[in-house]
Amino acid sequence: MSLVHQSMGSRIVRGLLREWKLQLLGIGSVVVVFVCLATALLFVTNLESVGAKWGTEGRITVFLKDDATADDARAVVDALRQTDGVKVARELEPDELRRWLRGPNPSKDLAEWPAEWLPRAIEAELTGAELPARARLLRQRLEGVGTVDLVEDHVSAASRISEFVKGAAGATAVLAALVFGAVVAIVGSTVRLALERRRPEVEIMRLVGASENFIRAPFLVEGFLQGFLGSAFGLAIVAAAFGSVRARFDEAVLALVGQAPVFLPSYLVFSLLAAGSTLGAGCAYVSLRGLENDDER
Amino acid sequence: MATSGPSEARTFRPAFRTGERFSRDAKDRPLIVFESVHKSYATGMRVLRGVDLSIGRGEFIFVTGPSGAGKSTMLRTIYGAEGIDEGRITFLGRDVGTVTKQAMPYLRRNVGIVFQDFKLVPTWTIFENIAIALEVAGYAARIIRSRVADALERVGLVGRGDERITVLSGGEKQRVAIARAIVNDPALVLADEPTGNLDPQLAVDILGLFEDMHRAGTTVLFATHDRSLLEVSPHRTLVLDDGRIHDIGAGAVIRASHPIEVPVR
Fold first, then answer.
1. Which of A191, B49, B126, B203 could form a disulfide with B195 if both were Cys (CB 3.0 to 4.6 A apart)?
2. Could you give the maximum distance between any two Cα atoms of chain A, in Å?
3. What is this structure's pTM?
């Protein structure tokens, strides 16, 4: 005689195995929608990353001429600190400068450059209203200083990137809404189909005195697993694709936008997994509402 | 404790008292009571018309009548699968009509039900089909194994727990269904045409299993339209005809022309 009785776990495993094609179809469909969503979010994340580098309004980077000394740099810093509306002004360290020049993943060559090969650079942050206008004015004034070679106020890049990020974020929000609808439809249909196939089983459980929670629990867990596995596999596919693309095009992207591509931050990955799981379980719960009407009471 | 006189003896309270929260005369009260029960379907068909009935503990009762007379409906009203229009049904002292949806599973755990079409899950093993009646009540695996083994022995299927339902004959399937009905030792077993799909010899064998559970103290309500079974095993018989119950007692001979006209005692 079987030593394994039908505990909750074994009932769930049995349901998953017996209807593996149906479950696979459900999980596969959720994977596709999460691949789309994760790809869109990856695009937005990288845009924001580029924006953070190039598009910070109210930030000014001052590059001094090659022959400028430490005293010259200190003089510019002091002058900036005494200017109204300047919150912070400081000379960048060589490591910071390397990071700024090459993004978050500096190449080995640049990392080995001695500090004296790098230009002296000063960064200032402005506070208050009308930042773009004030940044432009300060840039004009700094360009008149003899030791200054180049001033970058990031204003034009900031506005362009900001607009672009807003547009991409809007498109991603629309995509997220579509994903929500798709997951609801997929998990809901899968659970309803599974319920239909197991209707005799449910009827028998009712007859022998099973509570509603006892009957529903396996379906809820199946919905949860569909959402969780679908989102996890979707993210894994995007991560694998990102890894392979990055290995090939990292240098090109770096040269193009001055910023190496970055993957989704961990909080976003966990949020997507949680959203997938919650949606899956939620849809299963809603789909099971009709179950109550099976019994005439 | 030393007791020296009658007054001291009266104040003595034992450490372990008998279960006084249960009424001592509960065993003498009827298990099921129908009081002026009316039931009709949406089509206008009246199935039960003012049924009054009392079924005591440990009774074996045949419910018979022509097809469509409402035998199944009557049984379904007892375990709450069908509501009633008027009247009251009490089971174990509780009004079935007032049992909430949440409490209904607890009521059903006191009832074992056997159907004509067995109602077994074909993809499960014999063991799993029987064990489900205990799992829903949250019994431990050890107890489930022990009780299922005992139930299999009672229905003559010892050592066959691992077999699939699909390989069993009709008689064996009904034995599994009976094992599921009795595995949690219910107060009442309802059998809804349990021999309807079986040949006459098997039907008598299956009836024997119900006789066994009756001898063990279980109340059995056995619905059948097979009059030969009533002759094999004389018990109190209720004839359901045109929505009314006729209690013709035990050992009655029912004529084929009309089931209730000439009850012979």
1. B203
2. 94
3. 0.68
* Class of the domain covering B27-110+187-265: alpha beta
The answer to whether A208 contacts B141, with C-beta atoms less than 8 Å apart, is no
For residue B252, what pLDDT is reported?
A: 58
Which residue from A minimizes the CA distance to B181? A208
Residues of CATH 3.40.50.300 domain(s) within chain B? 27-110+187-265
How do residues B70-123 score in pLDDT, each as one tens digit?
899 999 999 999 999 999 999 988 899 899 888 899 999 999 999 988 899 998
CA dihedral (A70, A76, A82, A86) positive or negative: negative
Beta bridge partners of A61: A123, A152
Residue of A253, A242, A249 lying closest to A103 (CA atoms): A253
Contact yes or no for B99/A204 (Cβ under 8 A) = no
Burial (CB count <10 Å: 0-12, 13-18, 19+), residue A248: exposed
Is residue B222 a contact partner of residue B215, using CB atoms and an 8 Å limit? Answer: no
Task: Give the model confidence (pLDDT) of A123-150 as tens digits.
Answer: 888 877 777 777 778 888 888 888 888 8
What is the reported pLDDT for B261? Answer: 43
How many residues in chain A? 297
B164 neighbourhood in chain A, CB within 8 Å: none
Question: Complex ipTM, two decimals?
Answer: 0.80
